[in-house]
Amino acid sequence: MSKNLKKEGKFTYAEAGEGKAIIVLHGLMGALSNFEETFNHFSEKGYKVFIPELPLYTLPLLKTNVKNLAKFLHDFIEHKNLKNVVLLGNSLGGHIALYYTKHYPNDIEALVLTGSSGLYEKSMGDSFPKRGNYEYIKQKAEEVFYDPKIATKELVDDVFAIVNNRMTVLKTLAIAKSAIRHNMANDIPNMKQPTCLIWGKHDTVTPPEVANGFHDLFPDADLFWIDKCGHAAMMERPKEFNKVLENWLTERNI
How many CB atoms lie within 10 A of CB 251? Predict the structure, then answer.
């Protein structure tokens, strides 16, 4: 994906393809590479795919929240002069997509949420973060997936680095608290955009009842399940994820 990376002013992002814009929003401890197979697939299927690097750890502490991350997304969409965007978000990225859609509904043609926060999510636990305890972090990272092998050493090392830096810990906690404050349950019934919910049946972070909750609240949503899959379907079951989403976009003429 590095060959597709661009830097323009405050924005670092991956971009490829031509056509309708799909903007991918990664999660709190996610990386652009989490969506690599989805990025490659849809950029070859008639879409222009963007993955902006969200400023999770570069905003001032007092501005590290869902509201300002959505504002950053708005600045990015204006910078690229995009219209009728499809927002695709995992975990915190889904929450940012929801908050954005509430405030800038005319920008968004459709929503795609997978393992999204916004209603409820289980955090790393009451003891988070255990600084210095690599095995604990490894265990927690593995629990995000149905197949613990998806939590590679590189991924665990990245999370370990975040929780062992005082400022990134403070910002992680600030975002988590902000996510709780910005519960979207009362706003979702007003979101008329077609919405695709793709959920891992074994998601323990945003469990299946969260997906059902989203499905009940959205005026126009379709819910799809991926078996033997945890919180990050696009990483753990990328081929199934891409097939479900491609079929849905086709059926919805998006």
Answer: 11
pLDDT, residue 132, reads 65
Contact 91, 115 (CB under 8 A): yes
Q: What is the CATH number of the domain that holds 28?
A: 3.40.50.1820
Model pLDDT for residues 105-119, shown as the tens digit of each residue: 999 999 999 999 999
Which amino acid would we find at residue 60? P
Q: Is 40 among the domain residues?
A: yes
pTM attached to this predicted model: 0.93
Domain span at residue 38? 2-120+183-251
The CA-atom distances, in angstroms, between 86 and each of 18, 32, 57, 99, 111 are 14, 17, 25, 14, 6
Q: Count Cα neighbours of 239 within 13 Å in the Cβ-side half-sphere.
A: 0
Q: What confidence tens digit (pLDDT) does each residue in 148-159 have?
A: 999 999 999 988
Domain count, the chain: 1
